[in-house]
Amino acid sequence: MMSETSTEAVLFALEPHSLFYSLCKKLALNPGFHSFRRFPDNESYLRIEASVKDKHCIILADLSHPDSKCLHLLFLAETLRELGAVSVGLVAPYLCYLRQDKRFVAGEAVTSRIFASLLSQHVDWLVTVDPHLHRYHSLNEVYSIPCRVVHGGSLLATWLATQQNILLVGPDAESEQWVAQVSELSGHPYVIGEKQRLGDREVVVTLPDLDAHQGCSVVIIDDVISSGHTLIQCIEALQKQQFDDVSCAAIHGIFVGEAEERLQERGIRKLVTTNSIPHHTNEMDLSESLVVPISESLDEIDELRKK
Ligand code: R5P
């Protein structure tokens, strides 16, 4: 919780989010509202409907499908500031634009770097959940504002705790950071596959020989489910080795287009995600894990203002 002398804080949701009221309650934040609509030519209209002068403002925004949300976010952050907010922080349970962390082919935009620089100009601090860090070791390599990261691994491990005879599978080398943590916390063994990405929606997943684990139920662990192709390929590789009881637990479920239907068609038994992105598969609640990093961010701003 924030200290008693702290400045009052107001929470805004960019779009309706299941974490909104639980964060207001757990952190004693005032709920803040704004209206937003599109003009016929798709330009944005925004109006703040709360008093924000001399208050800390926090924006809760899941940044999946970011291109349609980012101007809304910048207009909201800048209007809060113009109306007298003493600070504007961002809680982005899913943080976008991290996967293009390198210029793989001459001429490509390194969007992770550009996006981080843009966001750092408009908000004072950031709290997020398991950002997709691959070649970057920390968000501080690209963000110039204080960033705090929550890890959802313990929620996945708790979800798995009551289950027996489970093999955890990470589809690719990048997933090992999450799978290893969940394995350590839950006590279930794990294996890691190899993924070759041939295109946005074309991947090949190869798994090691799993004979020693025959009879186990499999839970695939990944950070993000986007198009679902990584999971589909992983399920197929498992089915080739006679593993038919396959579920998946992921931190962020974007579920682009028909991703979920395609996964059901392949016979996935259960799909669970955290509520970083609102979806009916959300079975793991992040609100408690967000309390400390948010209050620390607000306290840090208060400390800086006293200097
Ligand atoms: C990539 O390295 C991530 O960890 C996920 O495996 C990937 O983003 C999933 O994407 P998709 O569902 O489109 O295969």
From TrEMBL:
Residues 147-252 form the Phosphoribosyltransferase domain. It holds the Pfam family Pribosyltran_N. Keywords: Kinase, Nucleotide biosynthesis, Transferase. The keyword Kinase applies. Belongs to the ribose-phosphate pyrophosphokinase family. Residues 18-121 form the Ribose-phosphate pyrophosphokinase N-terminal domain. SUPFAM superfamilies: PRTase-like. Gene3D superfamilies: 3.40.50.2020. One of its GO terms (cellular component) is ribose phosphate diphosphokinase complex. This is Ribose-phosphate pyrophosphokinase. PANTHER family: RIBOSE-PHOSPHATE DIPHOSPHOKINASE FAMILY MEMBER, RIBOSE-PHOSPHATE PYROPHOSPHOKINASE 1, CHLOROPLASTIC. One of its GO terms (molecular function) is magnesium ion binding. GO terms for biological process: 5-phosphoribose 1-diphosphate biosynthetic process; purine nucleotide biosynthetic process.
